[in-house]
Design goal:
Layout: H1 13-20, H2 25-28, E1 118-123, E2 129-132, H3 133-138, E3 142-149, H4 166-170, E4 173-182, H5 183-190, E5 198-203, E6 211-214, H6 215-218, E7 223-228, E8 231-232, E9 242-244, E10 257-263, E11 278-279, E12 285-286, E13 295-300, E14 311-320, E15 326-332, E16 340-341, E17 343-344, E18 354-362, E19 367-375, H7 384-391, E20 404-407, E21 413-416
Parallel strand pairs: 1-10
Antiparallel strand pairs: 1-2, 3-4, 4-7, 5-6, 5-10, 7-8, 7-9, 11-12, 13-14, 14-18, 15-16, 15-19, 17-18, 19-20, 20-21
Bound molecules: the ligand Nc1nc2c(c(=O)[nH]1)N[C@H]1C(S)=C(S)[C@@H](COP(=O)(O)O)O[C@H]1N2 and molybdenum atom (MO).
Length: 418
């Protein structure tokens, strides 16, 4: 379109949308009026089109103006709670860039030469296998976009609100495309025996991170992954080989995978006894929780962010379920009294982060924002009070409660429990 030509009177599709929703686009531009396109001239002083730019790089880097970083957590969070949290408040779509994927590396990040690395499959099998990375990559492979979530995600929030931002309340989940070989193919190749009912996976790092996995899941959709977002796994995420167990707690996704033993009972390893058990109010502990239940969180506006003033905002967030599809996300701006359906961005994928959005006009008064997710099984994300009623406050793991963000009159956003 010729920018100097008179603009047609008909409103643009986006303008029509705002009118339909009763929100004038002008209200969104809280910083002041913007001249129509035909009255603007290109900014001159910094115009990068007038100077020769830098070189093209063999391996890219982001703009020096971008600064989103993983972080290990504020001083209010004990160090041993571990983890390098994804800055969820700064993530834009559904895919987490590999370099910002959260990390939990309990024994540090090992340096593994893929030429020397082997995967051993043994135990109750007819043909024990020792495979190189090259041999695994030669096998029929598949790619899937899947979320990963540490069972300890949101563990700060059982009592008083502890974490200041969505990075630290929810940043132990990320979503990337994983590429690998179906574990079922390797188990068939090894000739896993009929009476074998579990496998035990072991990593090559200092912790080993041994975990028992029921054979039914191992034969269903587990991946032995070597790829992440189109290239090899990042070292912190398991290079050169890891398990990806769709929808199940992060810990069972053994990184730096070196051994799979086919067995007939769970091995009660340290990581599944006592760790990754949840202490219930009656003094008993739940074990082998596995599935990450439906959960959602508003990433904008969220804790530690600030709204510059009243006006239009798009509420944005992420929802996921370890039981498959997210069906519905509702949003409340009055602390849970009334709810409106958010738009779910297509395509919504099984076991992946779904991006939800809702147009909103902030009137400048105090507001409490919440999101509530329903998955394909009909399960509805609980309030914290509902969760605590059943689980008490000593569960540590698997806190999927509704998160509340309070917007103060000055536009500052705070983590609150209502
Ligand atoms: N070998 C090994 N596997 C491991 C871990 C580990 O420390 N060592 N951490 C586990 C935990 S607790 C989680 S939440 C996930 C995290 O995967 P990520 O670091 O790729 O996000 O890996 C799991 N697999
Ligand atoms: Mo974890």
């Amino acid at each position: 379109m010729n920018p100097s030509a008179p603009q047609p009177e008909r409103p643009s599709p986006s303008r029509r949308r705002f009118i339909k929703h009763g929100i004038a686009l002008g209200a969104a531009l809280v910083a002041g009026r913007v001249a129509p396109a035909h009255a603007q001239s290109p900014p001159v002083p910094d115009d990068p089109s007038r100077v020769v730019g830098g070189p093209m790089l063999p391996y890219g880097e982001r703009s020096p103006f971008e600064g989103a970083l993983r972080e290990k957590g504020p001083p209010s969070m004990p160090d041993e709670w571990g983890g390098n949290f994804t800055p969820l408040g700064e993530m834009l779509g559904t895919i987490t860039p590999s370099d910002l994927h959260y990390e939990v590396c309990r024994g540090g990040i090992p340096t593994i030469d893929p030429k020397k690395h082997r995967l051993l499959i043994h135990g109750m099998v007819d043909r024990p296998l020792i495979l190189t990375i090259d041999e695994i990559r030669r096998l029929p492979s598949t790619s899937r976009i899947l979320f990963l979530e540490c069972a300890g995600n949101t563990r700060t929030e059982w009592g008083a609100p502890l974490a200041p931002s969505v990075q630290f309340t929810h940043g132990l989940t990320s979503c990337t495309e994983w590429t690998g070989v179906a574990l079922s193919l390797l188990l068939r190749e090894a000739g896993a025996r009929k009476n074998a009912s579990w496998i035990v996976a072991e990593g090559a790092d200092a912790t080993g991170n041994e975990r028992s996995i029921p054979m039914a899941k191992a034969m269903d959709d587990v991946l032995v992954a070597y790829g992440q977002n189109g290239e090899a796994l990042r070292p912190g995420n398991g290079y050169p080989l890891r398990l990806i167990v769709p929808g199940w707690e992060g810990n069972i996704n053994t990184k730096w995978l070196r051994r799979i033993k086919v067995v007939d009972s769970p091995y009660m390893t340290r990581m599944e006894s006592p760790d990754h058990t949840s202490l219930m109010p009656d003094g008993k502990a739940r074990q082998f929780l596995f599935v990450m239940e439906a959960k959602s969180v508003i990433t904008f506006p969220s804790g530690a962010q600030r709204l510059p003033g009243p006006g239009f905002y798009e509420i944005k967030g992420l929802a996921w379920s370890g039981r498959g599809l997210v069906r519905r996300v509702e949003i409340s701006v009055d602390g849970g009294k009334t709810w409106r359906d958010a738009k779910l961005q297509a395509p919504v994928l099984r076991f992946a982060h779904a991006r939800f959005r809702l147009d909103w006009r902030w009137d400048g008064r105090e507001a409490v924002l919440q999101s509530r997710c329903t998955d394909e099984t009909g399960y509805v994300q609980p309030t914290l009070a509902e969760l605590v009623k059943v689980r008490g406050v000593n569960s540590i793991y698997h806190n999927n409660a509704i998160q509340s963000w309070k917007i103060a009159a000055d536009g500052s956003v705070h983590n609150v429990h209502v």
